[in-house]
Amino acid sequence: MTELAQAVVNGLQMGFLYALVAVGLTIIWGLMEMINFAHGEFLMLGMFGAWWLSAGFHLDPLLAIVPIALAMYLFGMLVYQQLMRRVQGGDPFTQIFATIGLLFLLQNAVVAGFTSDYRFVNDTFLQKLGGVRLTLLGVTFAVPLLLAAGLALLLFLALYLLIERTEFGLALQATSEDRDAARLVGIRPQRMFAVAWGVGAALVAIAGAILVNFFSVYPQVGLQFTVLAYAIVALGGFGSILGTLLAALLVGVIQSVTVVYLPPAFKDAFVFASYLLIGLFRPQGLFGRF
Amino acid sequence: MARLALVLGTLAAILYPIPLQIQGTTYYQTVGFLVLITAMLGVGWNVIGGWAGQFDFGPQVFFGVGAYTAALLYVKLGVEAWLGLLAGVAAAAVICAVLTYPLTRLRGHYFAISTVAIWMIAQPIGATWEYIGAAQGLFIPMKAHAGIVGSAVALQFSGPTKALGYYYSALVLFALTVALMAWVERSKLGFYFRAIRDDQEAAESIGIDSRLYKVLARSITAGVFAAGGVLYAFWALSVFPEQVLELNWSTLPIMATVVGGIGRLWGPLLGAVILIPISQIMSTTLGTGPLAGRGIDLIVYGLIIVVIAAFRPTGLLSLPWARWFGRRRPAAA
Hints:
heterodimer, A: 290 residues, mainly alpha, two-stranded antiparallel sheet, 2 strands, globular, B: 333 residues, ABC transporter involved in vitamin B12 uptake, BtuC
């Protein structure tokens, strides 16, 4: 029983990290309905940025969040303006291919520059807290993960308020619902899309900077997180920020509970099996509006 | 004019390895084998992706199903490769139909994710199922064959004719695939597929059962991937999960299809002829130098795909070849 409770707690903690990776995708894919297969590469760039700032300038990944988020915000806007704007009007397939091309380009540019070696960020603030554990009713909480989860929750709250409670967020939603109508009331859709790409890229890069505290960095690191992020966004329902958070927690719990009973190889398989099962009864995801 | 291009292309494909073989080189035959297998898978993917318009990211599952079926039949029952190929194609088509029918409730992005989901579930099954060798996989033992004919019947070539033998086997399978798909494209089936892609509601309103035809389209794709898997398994003399369930078995054919022209019968071949040699040339020219193994070929792939998507999303075959080259060069449509 304690084992199961521990697995659930561990899963919830991982779930917050997954949520962080998925939320950038919720904005670009879920809300603005643009496909981004290079999402994992944005994450990888964030992780590499954090590693570089830590190895070269001894900047703690938690502090590195600020420059990385700014840089990736600009990079996301650049990707939209230079590439995605061109393919936006066409067949959805074109977006898929443009971003798959981007995936290959970014991933292998980093391979060319840094090789495929695994890199580790050492002696970070969160890692130094590694020994500190809280025990409650026999269940252990690792403080670094707990702090990371808290950070993720804060970011989520900020994003939720931004999208649901500010004029900017409403303009973003209006653009995603009807571009022409949005233009009529004075919203510049292209600008909205560019900002959405910027925010999406910045968020996932922040996720990267937090993840380097727990995972090694290498050019192909994005894939393992993005396949989950895709399932999470679809499971939560496109465009639903709250749905993304809950689906991410669910995915984290499914993974950690699966590992208790089955070989570790199956931990992602059960996540996707649950996605299929839920998808068959609720094709629009748990909290999807359409 | 298009017929002339077909005849010349066929002749070139049949004849080019012969002087190389006499000279004693086998490298370019292997490159040709990889080009053809990629093109063949691309032609198969065109059915679900190009004609039926459903984004399928998990056809490599059926590449694996085909490879495993034929290898199991060969290792456990001694069934010859070509019979195993038929069995593999049938198994993949049936398994695909059963798995895909429920998925067709999902549309667009959700369907795409669900094909990835099937792949994610297939991987640990392949890696842990003892009967099919788990992570170790299956090894396909070579048997002695009487001459070229014996080798061709068993789909097992060795020694200096290995590359040539598999090249021609791939050519035969590719030709069969293209012929079949050309027939599908012009049949009622092909029109139904494209009707669903262009407007699913309209297609349903004239009585096309969209779910049934999506399943059919994906099963055809699965069958082609299974055939490719069998060929690859006998070439590699082994089947194991990390090899046959690799993501490249879907990304490379899909990229070839996009570069050549999505939804066009000959698009995947053009794409494969451009893409696969790039990677091969890169790995030979870079050798063991400082840039070897740094993914330079994949950077070039990425650039090509990005440029095509941004400027000519309908692919290279959709360029106005006829207008540029007039009657001297046929339109490759």
